[in-house]
Amino acid sequence: MPKLEPELAGLVRASFEQVVPSAIRKFDSQVSDIPDILKLTLGEPDFNAPEHVKQATIAAINNNASHYGPAAGLPELRQAIATYLAKLNHVTYDPDTEILTTIGATEAISAAMGTILGAGDEVLIPTPIFPLYMAVAQLNGATPVLINTADDNYVLTPERLTAALAAHPFAKMVVLNYPTNPTGVTYTKSELQVLADVIRQHKLLVLADEIYCELAYDHEHVSMAEFLPERTIVINGVSKSFAMTGYRIGYLAAPAALTAQIAKLHGALVTAAPTPMMAAAVEALTNGDADIAEMKQAYRTRRDYLVQALNTLGFETAAPNGAFYVFAKIPDTVNQDDYAYALQLAEKAHLAVIPGSFFGPGGEGYLRLSYAASQTVLESAVTRLSKFIAEPLN
Question: Which ranges carry the Aminotransferase class I/classII large domain (predicted)?
Answer without folding.
Answer: 36-385
